[in-house]
Write a structure and sequence with these properties.
72% of the residues lie in helices and 0% in strands. The radius of gyration is 19 Å and the shape is globular. The protein folds into two domains: 51 residues, Arc Repressor Mutant, subunit A (Orthogonal Bundle), CATH 1.10.10; 153 residues, Tetracycline Repressor, domain 2 (Orthogonal Bundle). α5 runs antiparallel to α12. The protein is mainly α.
Length: 208
């Protein structure tokens, strides 16, 4: 059992996740080790094991926090008054969640497989809340859609999110390879790609 006040425990968990987040800005999931994270926090590395047993659990906590941050934006859209251009609003919210999209596209299976059940359940709650909020947005701003249509939207849009980052965060090396392979590819931003998909998806639902 972890000793300390709830505030101390929450604060140290946050420091560990913050250290992981900073490292992840410049290094890959595979490159980052528990030792690296331990060197970036103001307490001894063995202390980390009081909060997280594996590197994957730390990344899963970061992943959960990213969903929580997106959920805050989705809640804000839901609470707006007046007319809302839903596709634009959702696309804009995802354009500000680059870290979420990066985590979605990389090592999601490893993070879940190497984390304890209680951590996985906590993460799934944040993920599930995102699905609930998007469903509520559809119910509010697309009232003509039936329950089955809303469910169909969810199970097309959320898998689509896994592929956004690889298509929009393209390195110079990848661009050169595409050119040398003779592939004529139009590069799009997260906002442009998501908006195009959502407009098509919502249009198809409205016309079906």
């Amino acid at each position: 059992m972890i000793k300390g006040t709830p505030e101390l425990i929450a604060g140290r968990r946050e420091e560990i996740v913050n250290a992981c987040e900073e490292l992840y800005k410049t290094r890959s999931f595979k490159e980052i080790t528990l030792k690296d994270i331990g060197n970036a926090v103001p307490f001894s590395r063995p202390t980390i094991y009081n909060y997280f047993q594996t590197k994957e659990e730390i990344f899963l906590a970061l992943f959960e926090r990213e969903y929580d941050r997106w959920n805050d934006e989705l809640s804000e859209i839901l609470e707006r008054g007046g007319e809302v251009k839903l596709a634009e609003a959702i696309a804009g919210s995802l354009a500000r969640r680059g870290q979420l999209l990066k985590l979605l596209s990389m090592n999601n299976y490893d993070m879940e497989a190497s984390s304890r059940e209680e951590n996985l359940v906590s993460f799934k709650k944040a993920y599930g809340r995102s699905m609930e909020l998007v469903t509520e947005l559809l119910r509010k701003y697309r009232p003509e859609m039936g329950e089955g249509e809303r469910a169909g939207f969810i199970y097309m849009f959320f898998p689509f999110m896994f592929g956004i980052y690889p298509y929009t965060a393209v390195t110079d090396k990848q661009k050169t390879a595409m050119d040398n392979a003779g592939i004529d590819y139009v590069y799009q931003s997260t906002y442009e790609l998501t908006l195009s998909f959502l407009n098509r998806l919502l249009s198809e639902k409205e016309s079906s």
